[in-house]
Amino acid sequence: MDAVLGRLAEAMPELEDVYRDLHAHPELAYAEYRTAKIVADRLRVDGFDVYDGIGVTGVVGIRRNGEGPTVVLRADMDGLPVEEQTGLDYASTATGLSEKGEVVPLMHACGHDVHVTCLLGAVQAMSAAADRWSGTLVALFQPAEEGRGGARAMIDDGLFDLIGKPDIILGQHVFPTPAGTVGYRSGAILSASDAFDIRVFGRGGHGSQPHSTVDPVVLASSIVMRLQTIVSREIAPADRVALTVGSIQAGSTGNIISDHADLIVSARSFDEGVAARVVASIRRIVEAECLASNSPKPPEFVELVGFKPTINDAESTDRVVRSLRARLGDEAVVEVEPYMGSEDFPEFGRSSGAPYVFWTLGGTDSDAYAEAEANGTLDSDIPTNHSPYFAPVIQPTLTTGVTALVAAAMEWLSTNRPPNGREV
Q1: Cβ pair 83, 107 in contact under 8 A
Q2: From 32, 76, 78, 343, the catalytic residue
Q3: How many CA atoms lie within 13 A of 421 on its CB side?
Q4: Which of 46, 145, 194, 411 is catalytic?
Q5: Distances (CA, A) of 388 to 30, 103, 326, 346, 373
Q6: Which of these, 58, 74, 153, 383, could form a disulfide with 171 (CB 3.0-4.6 Å)?
């Protein structure tokens, strides 16, 4: 490990510049062309075979370095339609086109720029010390993690035909926890997430004659209230579930009753069976409320997200934790509670049959975090992912992230060879 990470301090100033550049130039899902080119160019310099355009804008780098296991390191690349308000001198002022063709502000509000930079740093370190490991290292840069199915797109585009079945798949995500730390959990660490765009139908008319209409606003309101009973009355208290109606849209003015209303509903849980029951209940309630309101036709459901829970392989997690603690120290590697956030990272493991481990990477200034924790103001004072104020501190976040990826990969790839190549 000392040999592999020996030049990390020397390489870090340039990696920090790469991070600032990526942060200033976010791109939406399936539009990560600039980011993908930066990634592909650097992979080629580091001696990787590069395959781009996998899943539209995904990039895969493969470094075959003798006999041994195949290790996949994954980072996601897409930004979000959020207007940055961090005040950083490298803050994003970029804009892009939404799915609806609207111009929207763009920001790396979920830290994917951190993920890309850390994986590039790990690739560089592993490449420079190729005499210290043996096997195949796959650097996987995924598009469209933010609810657009980028993992599935890469898989459907032949990812595992290209790389074969891995021995382990590893990934990390920056969180608003103290920088310099990583968080692990065996078993479920992130929740499943199901989201639907639901259209319910009414019969439009004049606001002065509601008796001649079927008001979809009243119908949608009934749905919102009834959906709350799923968590409170249908799911056991021990089964953690979060259900949110994040959007309701209907009509355009006060004296016209619209002929439809649109709702976006999301549900999260840690158990696939519970998730299936929640989805079934959502459908049942929406359909029943439409029937009760005399809706002229059945509701329409469009699935937006169908993420499975992220469930870390127990044996592999033990190996990763052992390697991280050996490199970062026991105090920097902490067990965490499951998060209600969701990822499509597990798709790679489910589709290939390979075990996977996913951990959290702290990105918040440790002094600011400690002060907020002492004051009981973590929720108000520490910006979270997807906030316009989310801004991971560059250091020690990047150094820790690169180190964690290399340490975890070397748990499988290390040969413990001295420079002369003899086994020790």
Answers
A1: yes
A2: 78
A3: 3
A4: 145
A5: 22, 17, 36, 27, 21
A6: 74
Residue 335 annotated among the catalytic residues of the structure: no
d(CA 127, CA 68): 16
Q: Report d(CA 154, CA 163) in Å as an integer.
A: 12
Residue 304 buriedness (CB in 10 A; 0-12 / 13-18 / 19+): middle
Look at the alpha carbons of 170, 54, 116, 384 in this order and tell me if their dihedral is positive or negative: negative
Residue 16 among the catalytic residues: no
pLDDT tens across 50-85, in order?
999 999 999 999 999 999 999 999 999 999 999 999
Give exposure, 109-140, as e/b (b: 16+ Cβ within 10 Å): bbbbbbbbbbbbbbbbbbbbbebbbebbbbbb
In terms of pTM, does the model score above 0.70? Answer: yes
pLDDT computed for residue 155 by the predictor:
98
